[in-house]
Amino acid sequence: SPLPSIEPWLKAALERPLAVAARCRAPLEVLQKNFPLKEEPDAKKSKAEQDDDYNLADISEGTVTSLLHNKNTPYYIKCIAGIQAFREESVKLGNADLFNSYIQSLKRSVPSRGLQVFWDLLAHDAITLISQDEVEGSSVSKTEANQFLATEEKEEAAVAAVPAEEDAGDVDDLLDMM
Mean per-residue pLDDT for 6-29? Predict the structure, then answer.
């Protein structure tokens, strides 16, 4: 959302008085003549283009990790947006393994960190592994990428089905005892 407009009294307080501006004009011109500003041609390059040591995974992991500690849906949504941006950048750069290992590591940490609500939101947005169809060097097939999020649902369905069978056995045992 945009910032509110500056209050008139604050704007007036922050503006340089005309007397000060007039007195400083001559020394400022001398400084500008002695120290000309040069515009750097690389100044507008993105961090990824400038620096080989720049690692989107490290930034994403740190940001996501700190936001996930809050365990709150608005923070989860911000995390998902960051993960989606990380995925898109990985596809663009052709580096599927970095994203895939990160998201697999995140998935493994879900149960121990109590992040099932977050993972459900991530699955709802269908943020899967990057497959060979998207990035040539990926070690993940399209089928594996599609099953990555589905495995959780199958495991939950299997766990839910087991107690139902045991319950039916208990009822049969009670009837046999009568």
Answer: 89
Give the chain's end-to-end CA distance (angstroms, integer).
Answer: 69
Torsion (CA) 167, 171, 173, 175 in degrees, nearest 10: 180
Contacts 24+ apart (CB under 8 A), 119-124: 119/152, 121/73, 121/76, 121/77, 121/80, 122/80, 122/83, 122/149, 123/149, 123/152, 123/153
DSSP state of 15: S
Q: What is the pLDDT of residue 36?
A: 85
Average pLDDT over the chain reads 78
Please give the Cα distance from 106 to 83 (Å, whole number).
Answer: 11
- Pick from 123, 147, 46: nearest CA to 89: 46
Confidence bin at 30 (pLDDT 50/70/90)? very high
Please determine, for residue 164, whether its predicted confidence score (pLDDT) is greater than 50.
no
Residues 104, 63: Cα–Cα separation, whole Å: 17
Amino acid identity at 24: C
For the segment 72-97, the average pLDDT, to the nearest whole number, is 87
Q: Are 121 and 77 in contact (CB under 8 A)?
A: yes
**How far is it, in rounded angstroms, from Cα 131 to Cα 71?**
30
Geometric angle at alpha carbon 30, from 24 and 31, rounded to 5°: 85
**Contact criterion met (CB below 8 Å) for 131 and 142:** yes
Distance (Å, whole) CA 119 – CA 113: 11
